[in-house]
Amino acid sequence: MEEYLEAIRSRRASIMGRVAAAAERAGRSVEDVKVMAVSKTVDVPQVLAAIEAGYRLFGENRPQELVRKLEGLALVPKLPELSFDMIGNLQKNKINTVLGRATCIHSISSAHLAEAVSARAERRMDEGAMAGPQAVLLEVNVSGEASKSGFEPDELRRSMAELVELRGIRIQGLMTMAPQGDKDIARSTFEGLRELRDELADSHPELDLAELSCGMSEDFEEAVLEGSTLIRLGRVVFDPAFTLK
């Protein structure tokens, strides 16, 4: 495990160097970009190595894995303050599993899901089990790919007036995923997300839509160039064999 720790510590230095360089090109501060370690394919020992390497924000795709990782880490003394977000598709029958555990849910992909999360969070708030609304991001299918979930941009524009009225959620920004294999298309996708965020922020000044969650292992530099505030990195963090291109 010591060899693995050194590998991911070295990789983190490379990642952060690239993030800093992309931020500088965009006239941004590297402090404005959070780096999430997506731990969906690894176990608790690998998460502990990532913590020792310097990561503090983690993302899980499945509610049951979120619970398992949190329970495993709860047995480890003297850990630093950590955040675990839910970034994968969320089924309505798993909402209760995520509430109170995920710091933020990135994958609110429809008005119906937003309403369901809000209703259950409200119930917990009224019972005193949650101190406030659940932080969420709205997932947007900017690229229009049929295989991807999320609001269509025009659908989100139509839905925003209703979404902002939901008492059980606190909308913090937007999330998207870009098509794989073409960095130019990826950058255009991230640009579209930023432009949509700016438009919605103008039309709904009561919201603070500061967060743009976009950019993964193969396209995080393009995301930073287009304003991403949170990049979600899995293989590039946890797999020493993954090649940084």
Task: Tell me the total number of β-strands.
Answer: 8
**Domain module count:** 1
Sheet with the most strands, sense and barrel status: 4 strands, parallel
| Number of DSSP helical runs | 9
Rg to the nearest angstrom? 18 Å
CATH class, please?
A: Alpha Beta
N-to-C CA distance? 26 Å
Average pLDDT level: 96
Please indicate the percent range of residues in DSSP E strands (runs of 2 or more): 15-25%
CATH topology: TIM Barrel
List the helices and strands in order.
HEHEHEHEHEHEHEHEH
Tell me briefly what this model is.
With 245 residues, the protein is an alpha/beta fold. The chain has 9 helices and 8 strands. The chain has helices at residues 2-25, 44-53, 63-74, 95-98, 111-127, 153-163, 183-203, 220-225, 235-238; strands at 34-38, 57-60, 83-86, 104-108, 134-139, 169-175, 211-213, 230-233.
Q: What are the key terms here?
A:
245 residues, alpha/beta, 16% strand, 4-stranded parallel sheet, TIM Barrel
